[in-house]
Amino acid sequence: MNYTPEGVNRSLLKKFYSVGAIKAAVESREIFEGRVTLCDSAHNLWVDLGGFRGIIPRSEGALGILEGETRDIALISKVNRTVCFRIMGLHRGSDGELLPVLSRRNVQLSCKSEYIDKLRAGDIITARVTRLEGFGAFIDIGCGLNSLIPIDMLSVSRISHPRDRLSDFQIIRAVLKKREPEKLTFSVKELLGTWEENVSLFECGETVTGIVRGIEPYGVFVELTPNLAGLAEYTDGVKNGQPVSVFIKSFSPARLKVKLSIVEAFGKASGPQELRYFISGGHIDEWRYSPPGSDKQIYTKF
Description:
The chain has helices at about 20-30, 75, 105-115, 195-200, and strands at about 30-40, 45-50, 55, 80-90, 100-105, 125-135, 135-140, 145-150, 170-180, 185, 205-215, 220-225, 230, 245-250, 255-265, 285-290, 300. It is mainly beta.
C-alpha cells in the first residue's frame, strides 16, 4: 500500500460516475483522494467524487477526533484541500440522493500500523509541509498524519524562522531523527550535505550570492547553502534575510570556517531556495558534517 502524504500522489485522485464504480471501490478497499468542498455545521466533510458527493462523517474525519485527542479545526482546515479516504459504503440521504460514505480515519489507522509504526530512526521519507511555526515545521508524513521538524533540524546554517528554509505545502525529504511512544521527530539537515560536500560547490576567488543570517559587532554571517555559512567583515546597512554578493577569501577545514567579503547588498530575499539533497533515500545510521581532523566535530547518530 502506498501511504504517501496527502496531495502528493496524483494517481489517487479518482472520479466516480456510476453506482457500480462506487461498489467496486467499497469491495477493493483502495485508498483514494479527493477535494473537500464543504465542512458543514456538524463538521462532516463533503468531498467531490465527480458524479457523486461523498461524505466523511465527523468521527471519520481524522485519527483522534473520535478519541477527543484531535480538535475540530483539523477538519475545518481541510476545506478546498485534498484528503485521502476509503469508500466504506453507499447510503441514500434524506432527500433521496445516493451518498457514498467515506472514511479518512480508516486510512490513517492503516497508515500508522502498516507504515509509520515500522519506521526506524535513520529512515528517509517523502513528506509535505503543512504548517510553519516559529519553533519548527509540521509535516504530513503519510495520509495526513503530522510530525515536527524542529527549526534547528532544518539546516546547519541558523535561520530565524522556518519560512527562511521552507514554504507551505512544499514536498521535501526528511529523516526520522527520534522515535518516542507518541511522537516522531524528523530532520532535514543530514540530507543537505557535509561541510566538504558543500564547500566543493565553490572556489576561492569566486564572487557568489549569499543570504545574511546573522549580524554581530565582529562580522556578518552569510549563508552560501543551507549547510554552509561564512563570516564577512561587519558592514553597515545590511539586514537579516537580505541577499548579498560575497567574495570568497578562504576555506579552513580544521576550523569549519569560510572567510568572506561583502561586495554588494541587494533588496529583500524572494523566498526559500530550492533544497539540494546529497542523500535522498534509504536509511542512514550516522552522519558526520565535519571533515576528519576538524577541531569541531558535528555529527548525528541515529
